[in-house]
Structures are given as structure tokens and as C-alpha cells.
Amino acid sequence: MNPQARVLVVDDDLTVRDVVRRYLELAGHEVALADTGEDALAWIAGNEPDLVVLDLMLPGIDGLEVCRRLRRTSAVPVVMLTALGEEEDRIAGLQLGADDYVTKPFSPRELALRVSSVLRRAAATTSLPDKPLVDGDLRLDTVARTATWCDTELSLTSREFDLLAFLLSHPGRAFTREQLLERVWGWDFGDQSTVTVHVRRLREKVEREPAKPTRIVTVWGVGYRYDTQA
After folding, report:
1. Which residue, 61, 68, 199, 221, has most beta carbons within 10 Å?
2. How far apart are CA 145 and CA 209, in angstroms?
């Protein structure tokens, strides 16, 4: 079982909130609840959740806006709940920094497993070297989990950091999206577009010309490779 984490569940459906709360508590977590985006942001401002389960379709401030505001100040992991068929919203959520998503209707057990997976990845540092990972003007401190580029600290989500650190620690090696899902996300199944979206976000942060990447390059027919700049 994972160490106890504080999880905020944000959903305007009372039944969903109650079911998710019970399953997460069974998994050993402390759970707080909110039914609107406004209440969620107010709670987060006074507390430090380890993870947020966030419904996209909220009254008032919707889930995408909550995620957008959250990412201005926090890298807390976010698992989004989306309706089946809302692919554009799922992609938008990932682009804003969500770490994972589950489509409704969903299995509460699957959601609890996804939450545990995201928490494990957010806490895991043992697979990375203790010394900083450096490539030219890009530097990752794997102990402090901070990244700087051209002496400016990067705002990375936990999953973005994990993906960048993994690729940087295996320079010159091509990985398929499936391999990255397994090695970075810890999934043995899942939507491979998740990897594509995270690569796109990373390129916007570590490439001088994101449309013409020189660090995180596409290997056509395979996946992605990290090329050092030295």
C-alpha cells in the first residue's frame, strides 16, 4: 500500500464524490471533498494536497480553468475525470498539466489504481541518479526535483519532470510511446496520445524552436529520442 496521501476530490455529483472517497479511503488515503471549482481553489489555497481528482464539467469555474490556475503556482499531480467522447477536453487537460485522466463512467477501483500510480511516480526518485542531469544549458536536480534552462527555473509538472529526466538519462536511445508509458507512467496499458501531449509541452519549455526540436526529437515509426546539445 502507498503511504497515506491527502487527496482532494472535486466533482459536483454527490454520488461520484462519495464513491470515490470510499475507494480512496480504502486505499489508505485521507480525502477532502469539493463540489465547485471555487471551493476547490479556496481549499487548495489553505492546504497542501498530494493529488487532486478533478472533474472537467463543474458549475462556475470548470475543471480546465481550475487546472490552469493551479498550474500557475503548483505542480501537485492532477487526475482529471472526463466524459466519454470529450477527447478535445482530455487533450486540453493534459496540455494544461494534468498527469492522467479517467473517462466517465469509470470503475472506482481503476481510478484508485490510477491515483496510486500517479502518487508513486510523483514520489519516485530511486530510478534516477543522485547527481544532477546536465545537457548544456539544461540542468535537472533529481534530488530537489527542480529543472533550470539558461539559469531560469522551469515550471514542470511531476510527470513532465519524470519524462524529461528519463529521456535525458538515456541520451541517444529511441523509445516507443508504449515503452514510455510503461517506464515513466508505470502503465501497462493506456492512451498513447498522453505521451505525445507531454512531449509537446516539454518541447515548449526546453526547445528554442519547439516546432523544430533538437533535444526531444521524433524518431519516425518508433517514438522519441533525446539528443544531447554538447
Report:
1. 199
2. 25
Q: Which architecture, in CATH terms, is 133-226?
A: Orthogonal Bundle (1.10)
Q: What is the pLDDT of residue 135?
A: 92
Are the C-beta atoms of residues 23 and 108 closer than 8 Å to each other? yes
Distance separating alpha carbons of residues 41 and 34, to the nearest angstrom: 9
| CA dist 47 → 11, 123, 140, 178, 203 (Å) | 18, 19, 27, 36, 32
- In SS3 terms, 55-117 reads as ECCCCCCCHHHHHHHHHHHCCCCEEEEEECCCHHHHHHHHHHCCCEEEEECCCHHHHHHHHHH
Per residue in 149-196, pLDDT (tens digit) is 988 898 887 788 889 999 998 999 999 998 888 888 776 666 678 888
Q: Counting beta carbons within 10 angstroms of the beta carbon of residue 196, is it exposed (0 to 12), middle (13 to 18) or buried (19 or more)?
A: middle
Find the radius of gyration of the CA atoms of the chain. Answer: 18
CB 59 within 8 A of CB 119: no
Contact between 89 and 64 (Cβ < 8 Å): yes
Closest CA to 8 of 68, 38, 50: 50
> What are the extents of the domains in the chain?
6-123, 133-226
Q: Which residue type, as a one-letter code, is found at position 144?
A: A
Q: What three-state secondary structure class fits 55?
A: strand
User: Where is pLDDT greater, at 26 or 188?
Assistant: 26
d(Cα 220, Cα 202) in Å, to the nearest integer? Answer: 18
Domain 6-123 CATH class label: alpha beta
